[in-house]
Write a structure and sequence with these properties.
Shape: rod-shaped
Largest sheet: 5 strands, antiparallel
Number of helices: 1
Order of helices and strands: HEEEEE
Distance between the termini: 70 Å
Structural class: alpha+beta
Radius of gyration: 28 Å
Number of strands: 5
Oligomer: single chain
Helix content: 25-40%
Amino acid sequence: MNRQKGVILLASLVLMLMLGLLSASALQGALLQERMASNLVESLRGLEKAEAILAEGEARLRHAQPAACTLCQPPASPHDEATHAGQPWHAAREGVYLLQNLGPSVRAAHVPGGQTVNLFRVTAVSRATPGRQVLESIVALEEGGAPFRIMWRQRLRE
């Protein structure tokens, strides 16, 4: 009779060990899902901030346009706040932005043929540390008109 009680005790200990391992594995999976969801939320917040900075930079074009540049390359590494070709980054509430004058064009998208507009590149960088985002837009500005976005893209870290 004592031998049977020992076998049951051993079987219950093995079962408890297996349940413990199963629960530890489930907890590890839940923590991984939590981290992934948190990173996604931070990335989306950074994207929203970068979009707001982009709009702020585009609005600034109404009041002050930068001088035309001869070779306007996009910033090589916009994820690092720096000066690009002597053009300073402008501080915004949630990050920084860079304005570049690409010059006049008669072939801009969404503009009637033959109409001349000045094109500008606006690069916006959010300050969100884990979810830092960089957006660029090309903006057309008609004489005496309001600037309007022709296209935009998201620059990913390389």
